[in-house]
Amino acid sequence: MSDDILFDLKGVSKKFVKGKDTITVFDGLDMSIARGDFLAIMGPSGSGKTTLLNMLGGVDQPTGGEIWFDGSRIDSLSENQLAAWRANNIGFIFQFYNLMPMLNAERNVELPLLLTKLSRSQRKKNIAAALELVSLSDRARHMPAEMSGGQQQRVAIARALVSDPKLMLCDEPTGDLDRETADEILSMLQLLNREYDKTIVMVTHDPEAAKYAKRTLHLDKGVFVEKDLAA
Amino acid sequence: MKDLYLVLKNLTRKKMRLFLTVFATFIAFMIFGTLTAFQKAFDSGVDLAADDRLIVLNKISFTQVLPIAYATRVRAVENVEAMTHLNWFGGYYQDPRSQFAMFAVDAENFMEVFDELVLSDAEREAWIDNRQGLIAGRAIADTYGWEVGDRIPINSNIFSQRDGRTDWDFDVVGIYEGEDPQTDTNGVYFHYEYFNETQSFGGDFIGFMAVRTSDPSLNETVIKTIDDMFANSPAETETVPEKAFNKAFIEQIGNLSLILTSVVLAAFFVILVIVGNSMILSIRERTGEIGVMKTLGFTSGRIFRMVLAESVLLALIGGVLGVLASGFMITLINSAPIQLPVLVLDGSVWSQAMLFVVALGFITGIVPAMSALRLNIITALSRS
Amino acid sequence: MAGFFSQIWTVIVMNILSLPRRAWMSLAAVFAVAVVVAVLLAFLAMAKGFEKTLAGTGSDKVAIVTRVGSQSELNSVLGRDTVNNLTTAPGIAPDADGNPIYSSELFVIVDGIKRNSQTQANIPMRGIFLEGFDLRENLTIVEGRAFESGRNEIVVGKGVQQQFEGFDVGAEIRFGKTAWQVVGVFSTGGSAFESELWADAPTVQSQFQRGSSFQTVRLLLANADDVTPIKEFIDNDPTLNLDVQTEADYFASQGEALNGIAIFGWAISIVMGLGALAGALNTMYTSVAARAQETATLRAIGFSNTSAFAGTLAESMVLSIVGGIVGAFAAWLFFDGFSASTLGATFTQVVFSFELTPELFANGIQLALAIGFIGGFFPAWRSARVPVVTAFQGVE
């Protein structure tokens, strides 16, 4: 295994039992993600792209196979071990931002830092830097309800990167935004990938969004299909 | 109602919430049923008092005595059918702290005045023949495990025998039942002669008299005749109908009825808020569905009725279960070894409970039903 | 664990900050707990007030002697000879001339009309010598004067004057055939004696046909709380069939009469508490459901499920404590000091005030906490089980 590999999935399978039926989403999926990659995963609904993202984030666990992250297996960790692992390694960005409505922007960004040993002053510095990066320093004291969708998503990005995770996982990050705002958000992700060396995995059904990624994988019924590799 | 199936499905969609709201309602109705039975039991002394019975007391207070000579004079009054006199004995059996209602009475006439106490003829004759005999009510006999034929010592915390002892020996010769299930059977009665000849404190005095008139309409005349007869004597009398006497006695304890009613009201107020909120919430969660139903052609009025039916049904389930449970509680309390009046859950409690069920259902359902009625389809669908 | 407490604290704060979004639901839970606590405290305050009134009445420096087994002053009868014999017992404090200090008294019942209900009720009337006044602590004549011996005059307790009609100074009252003049009002600092009428003992003996008999004798003890010498004296004399106890013990046992009310209060409020618990559970399950996405997002960020559990439990406890305080405050506002009277052990009215002590207040808060804890525990359990994938789903 090369040092450049951040994620390594070996023969991963995932089955759901729904009533009397068993639905197989993945059956022996192999993939690897290199450090510094910006990967877009596309596919129709039901293709398994969200399930894959959930497994990468340690939110959902495979029914078979192994998931290796940075040289250690994560598929066999307990729920609370996974929570701690996520706190150290992953930053999530959601389609609906998922900000805490009762906290202002800087308090929202602070959340992941509460899981670290950082002092209060250190936390303040990091929050300010993260908000600076998403150009929202002037909105630090605003409540989510007082901000536009794009601004809320930028707060969410700041929250995802404030603890300096190796990997950022984005679930339809622009699904709820207009084109112009979406481009702004995607450029920001691109910047994070290029300038700050964040590995990013983004699930989307929007081909325009996928264009910002370094590479795009197409998922269909649980397998990657070759398509438009040139794009 | 054709929509009953839909109403039932709506009601049962969130099992936990259904259980909790029904449980809260259940508790309130259980409290209602049990406390109402208590209240009726306290009132039974008044409700069951005979209309044709009068009590003749010393005017100063019922604890002041009257001379025995009064008995003969009262018995001779016109329209007095029967008369017995009673002396409070302050009796207790073994435990001085649990005193019971024990009276020395004129045994020959006693059963004629208190005709709601049922005693077999054989036991009645046995009592009249046995100077040391006593009759006890079913409830008190069960409390102490007395049976006919037992010889028991009973102490008085007021009187003592001439030799200084405070205990008397008695033969249990009869155990009487009540005509009505709520008739008090916690009383014990024995011969005045036995009392008068053995106790050491003066003699020839009586506590009060109970008189049965030939007709309740003659009560006023009899009262006046008796009280006038003793006016300006050292012991003036005050004659009152038994109902009034019992009522005054209950009221001395305090306003029990107000206390019980307040507790029941508090309990209902609590569930009103809990259930009402729950109904509002569950209708709000269904905004989208109600919008869909309206687009399907359900009229607003019909949806309004469905919501109300749901809240009434909810109250009905909790109410019926609660009153049933109070029936169980009452049986439990009745069988407990404490001196309490007999509790009865009768039809009037049920009908009152059903009235509250409907009221509760309407009050908790009206706000959500109104908002469902007014709901605009476009807002409903966009909010979902 | 780094930040273990800070993450729990953060989640608790967020739960509480989110309360206004579910204002009505939360208010319902608060209200239910408040009513239950208020009901409990009303009953407890009633029992406590009664107990305190009677406990405050008896002195441990005074012994009360009654006929054996009589349980109360009303039932007791003591002949003149018995009284004379008894007062030769050792252990009684002597006055300046070396005579024992005692008070022989009568206790009869008369009728009065209660102000609030306009119904007849029993008032105790005590036949007493003026020397007997010295055996009561804190006794003051607050209006008028004391009765004169040999005359049909009475002084009325403050409690009687408050609760019953027609006892103003100067008024004439009739008991049976005889008329009495109200000449004064006395206070004993809130004790049960204030529920009584006092008149000259020999006058009461003659007007109530009591001959030369008394009902009780009060003895000033040479040593406080020590009735042993008197007890031994009684036991050694076969002609004395008497009970002796300190006045404090006598009234303390009578104060237990309303303990049943306290038990009833607990029973009814625990049952009502179950209803309030259902309300609390309902509120908290709703809260957990409404906040599922927030909870899942925090979990995705890396917060532990312990923090989710703690947050929900704390929210429930806060609601119930607020309810408890509101309920206790309402009980204090409406019931503390509320004056009432009921039938005491002597078949007479005892006037007392509801009393809400800090100890009872604590009882109320404990009940509220119990409801809050149980009402929060199970929903908290569910909150800790919210799947993290919920964070990726849209708002339901």
Side by side, the strands of the main sheet of chain A go: 6-7-8-3-9-10
CATH architecture of chain A: 3-Layer(aba) Sandwich
- Give the CATH class of chain A: Alpha Beta
CATH superfamily placement of chain A: P-loop containing nucleotide triphosphate hydrolases
What does this structure look like?
- The complex is a heterotrimer of chains A (231), B (384) and C (396).
- Chain A is an alpha/beta fold.
- Chain A has helices at 49-56, 79-89, 105-110, 120-133, 149-161, 179-195, 207-210; strands at 5-18, 21-34, 38-42, 64-69, 72-73, 90-93, 167-171, 199-203, 215-220, 223-225.
- A six-stranded mixed beta sheet of chain A has the order 6-7-8-3-9-10. A four-stranded antiparallel beta sheet of chain A has the order 2-1-4-5, with helices on one face.
- In chain A, a hairpin with a 2-residue loop joins strand 9 and strand 10.
- Chain B is of the alpha+beta class and 384 residues long.
- Chain B folds into two domains: 4-45 and 255-383, no CATH class; 60-235, no CATH class.
- Chain B is built from 14 helices and 13 strands.
- Chain B has helices at residues 4-11, 15-47, 69-75, 107-113, 121-129, 138-144, 192-198, 219-229, 242-253, 256-285, 287-296, 300-335, 347-374, 377-383; strands at residues 53-58, 66-67, 80-88, 91-92, 101-105, 117-118, 133-137, 151-156, 167-178, 187-191, 205-206, 208-213, 237-241.
- In chain B, strands 1, 3, 4, 5, 6, 7, 8, 9, 10, 12 and 13 form an eleven-stranded mixed beta sheet that branches.
- Chain C is elongated, with a radius of gyration of 30 Å.
- The two termini of chain C are 34 Å apart.
- By secondary structure, chain C is of the alpha+beta class.
- Chain C has helices at residues 4-17, 23-55, 80-86, 158-163, 201-207, 228-236, 247-255, 259-290, 292-301, 305-335, 358-384, and strands at residues 62-67, 102-113, 120-128, 140-144, 153-157, 172-175, 178-187, 197-200, 216-220, 242-246, 339-343, 349-353.
- Chains in contact: A-C, B-C.
- At the B-C interface, helix 2, helix 9 and helix 10 of B face helix 2, strand 2, strand 3, helix 8 and strand 11 of C.
